[in-house]
From TrEMBL:
One of its GO terms (cellular component) is nuclear telomere cap complex. It comes from the Eukaryota. The keyword DNA-binding applies. This is Protection of telomeres protein 1. It comes from Chloebia gouldiae (Gouldian finch). One of its GO terms (molecular function) is G-rich strand telomeric DNA binding.
Length: 783
DNA sequence: TTAGGTTTGG
């Protein structure tokens, strides 16, 4: 009798789902071949090559020797056998070592006896360091469940003897197929950047399903249907731009296009697609291979994706929702309730306030799960999202307090019969079009970390003060003033009186902010020279990049290295076009200081390198060398980087002085390296970051445009920080939403109090009167 | 098996 055993779990062609590691599939009598899946091809021992994809290949031979089951140092089970190709006994190379790892090793050790016929598919070929001897192969095969190997054993005894030599275990090597080389009917390993995905949802069959569309630098797309009964074994994709590695995905042709589908042994790793983020795989596998080479692949894909994939997406904060649109929300679940059979209520918040009144889904208090006190505290910040149909089951299973990303929420403007003002409704409609669904984010997710930090910073008492400015009862409560001023003694003047008066004068006014410019708040940040009074745009990073490239073409001058006041270090990069970098560390008392106290000057650095250095050192000054001195770069580039801020000098008003002037600051008892002081020493007229905005103010009598020219006082946010700080941008947006809530009629806008002054600007023909807001600060309970 | 990307009802 011939018995055929198939060791499985991850055999790619196995049709059975039983998770038993060893399964008796068939007992065949008098038959010499197992009906192997048609896509498998037999590989001759003589033709083995390292680095090829053997996912669809098998080798067959007789077990001539087996060793006792042992454990490797890391606890992995290890079983080694020698297999001889019985069809080619006269061949020079007819034996090979097969190293079996993990659960498969344990299972094989129980079953395999010498003389049995052994078939393995999905192995890895590893070259041995020593030369071959006596018919032994100079490769060995590595086999494991993780590698997707499958083993077939014929238990019919045959006998041969063979010697064997020790072999060295080498980490397995995978081969990855680019998306433009996929062939129907194969099982491959691949990398890709997520272009589209549906978070896992419960399919109509027995499994979870997740749809993932990948692209890679071949610019070919591949849509994969991934199924698994275990949610954890589907890739943990959180956003478009994430990078995935799939092992053992089956390729099929569907509607004239290649399609990926899970097959036995499918495994995935997911990586954050952000350049510079740690390359840490998200996986449920206990065991996975991940080495320097893989790290490099991920980093390369990140760079490719950065310029080839739009990851702008539709992520929005509640403060930024627009009616009649769809958006993705990262939020925390604070309440949930069953509404009816086909819909379920989720109450969530993200710390920001929706500028529109939002609907409240009526549910009975007893049906609402969540912390009552918190729900009350958050009653004006949390929003109700009604999820339908296929999303209900998943929504029900969510735990209060968990962090979610809800994809493609529909914002619907609606007005009930008994309300004059329309409100916003949030629906997660049934189905999964456009990736509609709910994803559970782990606490380790960087977006969750950021959100948690933000939620903790939200003062719930303050947000209750905003109650008067929000949703339900708009008209009655909007008599309130939301801006504080310094000059409480002045009484308010009507706008008509102001526009009819001559300039210059100062007034206290009470008005509504009908609109403001720019609507994109980051565009309000400019650079101002207090000497020549000029305003300019903040240069973008490309401009800086170009200047850096230009200056890197000249090598640092070694004669300028290591002077009395700085120490220098130089090195060359490994890139194709070698680049020399010099860093000059400014000393204090002839000593180097801690990096966080040190000012450095750098020659030949890239944008990224300089940015990294600013994280570590107190100040960074990009320089280049001339024949006899170091000097600043073109003043279109920042002359100084400190913390998150790039400091610029005025081209008109600056007269750069020798870098050596910095040594006088370095000699101070405790050098503070203040930008103003550095600028002065270097002859730079420091440009100040300012907010420039135009406010259109109205009262019952007239309307006027007043300019806001503000460094920090009005918003209590430094203009210099806003471009690099998301929290502050968020805070500023919320402030503007409070002062000028979008989507409201004039009558529904809040009243503001502020100070304005009028002034004359001489035109060619006549004087023009302008107005500027001054000495005004947004009240703390608004911010 | 399930889905096979392309939104809108409650």
């Amino acid at each position: 009798m011939l018995m055929v055993l198939v060791l499985k779990v991850s055999a790619p062609w196995a049709s059975d789902k039983v998770a038993m590691p060893v399964q008796l599939l068939k007992i065949i009598e008098g038959q010499s071949e197992i009906p192997l899946p048609s896509h498998l091809q037999k590989e001759n021992l003589e033709h083995l090559q390292e680095g090829c994809d053997h996912t669809n290949k098998y080798i067959q031979g007789v077990v001539t020797l087996s060793y006792p089951l042992t454990k490797l140092r890391d606890g992995t089970d290890f079983f080694k056998i020698v297999v001889q190709d019985s069809d080619n006994l006269r061949s020079q190379i007819n034996s090979i070592n097969v190293l079996i790892y993990g659960k498969m090793a344990e299972d094989c050790a129980k079953i395999i006896c010498q003389g049995e016929t052994f078939i393995v598919a999905g192995f890895k070929v590893i070259k041995l360091p020593a030369a071959r001897e006596g018919g032994r192969h100079d490769f060995h095969l590595e086999v494991s469940e993780e590698a997707g190997s499958a083993i077939y054993i014929y238990t019919k005894p045959k006998t041969t003897a063979a010697s064997e030599t020790a072999s060295v275990s080498v980490a397995p090597k995978y081969v990855y197929t680019p998306l433009n080389h996929l062939k129907d009917g194969t099982v491959v390993n691949l990398y890709g950047v997520v272009k589209f995905f549906k978070p896992p949802y419960i399919s109509k069959g027995t499994d979870y399903c997740s749809i993932v569309t990948l692209v890679d630098p071949s610019n070919v797309k591949l849509t994969c249907s991934l199924f698994s009964g275990n949610l954890d074994s589907l890739p943990k994709i959180y956003k478009v731009g994430d990078i995935v590695r799939f092992h053992r995905i089956k390729i099929r042709e569907y509607n004239g296009q290649m399609q990926g589908i899970t097959s036995g042994g499918f495994a995935s790793l997911t990586f954050d697609g952000t350049i510079g983020a740690p390359v840490v795989p998200r996986t449920s596998s206990r065991v996975y291979t991940f080495m320097d080479e893989e790290q490099k692949t991920v980093e390369e894909l990140r760079i490719w994706a950065a310029s080839n994939i739009s990851i702008s997406g539709s992520a929005t904060k509640l403060s930024g929702v627009q009616p009649m649109l769809f958006f993705d929300l990262t939020c925390q679940l604070v309440g949930k309730a069953k509404v009816d059979g086909s819909s379920f209520l989720l109450k969530v918040w993200d710390g920001t306030k929706c500028p529109y009144p939002t609907w409240k889904v009526p549910v009975e208090a007893k049906d609402l799960e969540g912390e009552k006190v918190l729900l009350h505290q958050l009653r004006n910040l949390a929003v109700d999202i009604l999820v339908y149909d296929n999303h209900v089951q998943l929504a029900e299973s969510l735990k209060i307090g968990s962090f979610l990303r809800i994809y493609s929420i529909h914002v619907k403007q609606a007005s009930a019969d008994n309300e004059d003002v329309s409100h916003m409704e949030f629906h997660l409609h049934g189905g999964t079009c456009y990736g509609r669904g709910i994803g559970l984010l782990p606490e380790s997710n960087p977006d969750v970390k950021e959100l948690k930090e933000f939620l903790e910073s939200v003062n719930l008492t303050d947000s209750q003060n905003m109650e008067s400015m929000c949703s339900m009862d708009i008209d009655s409560t909007f008599g309130n003033v939301t801006v504080l001023t310094d000059h409480q003694d002045l009484s308010a003047t009507e706008l008509k009186t102001i526009t009819n008066s001559s300039a210059p004068r100062q007034y206290r006014i009470r008005a509504k902010l009908r609109t403001y410019k720019p609507q994109k708040l980051h565009q309000s940040v400019k650079l101002h020279c207090s000497k020549c009074n000029s305003l300019q745009e903040v240069p973008d990073r490309d401009e800086f990049d170009v200047i850096l490239h230009g200056s890197a073409s000249a090598a640092p001058n070694p004669e300028l290295h290591n002077t009395s006041w700085y120490e220098s270090v130089t090195w060359s990069t490994q890139e194709q076009k070698q680049r020399e970098i010099a860093i000059h560390f400014v000393k204090h008392d002839e000593m180097l200081q801690h990096p966080e106290d040190t000012l450095i000057m750098i020659e030949g650095g890239t944008l990224k390198e300089i940015w990294k250095l600013t994280k570590r050192f107190k100040c960074v000054i990009p320089v280049r060398s001339t024949e006899d001195d170091l000097e600043l770069l073109d003043l279109s580039a920042p002359f100084l980087l400190k913390g998150n801020v790039k400091y610029y000098g005025c081209k008109q008003c600056s007269t750069p002085k020798p870098m050596k002037n910095l040594s006088s600051i370095a000699a101070e008892q405790q050098p503070s390296w203040e930008p103003t002081e550095i600028a002065q020493a270097l002859g730079i007229e420091l440009l100040q970051y300012v907010f420039i905005m135009k406010f259109t103010l109205v009262d019952e009598t007239a309307s006027l445009n007043a300019y806001l020219f503000d460094h920090e006082k009005f918003f209590q946010i430094p203009a210099s920080e806003i471009l690099t700080n998301n929290f502050l941008q968020e805070k500023m947006q919320m402030t503007m939403n409070t002062l000028c809530p979008p989507g409201r009629k004039l009558g529904e806008l809040p009243w503001l109090e502020c100070f304005i002054k009028s002034y004359n600007v001489r035109g060619a023909m006549e004087n023009q009167v302008y107005y500027q807001i001054f000495d005004t600060t947004v009240a703390e309970d608004v911010v």
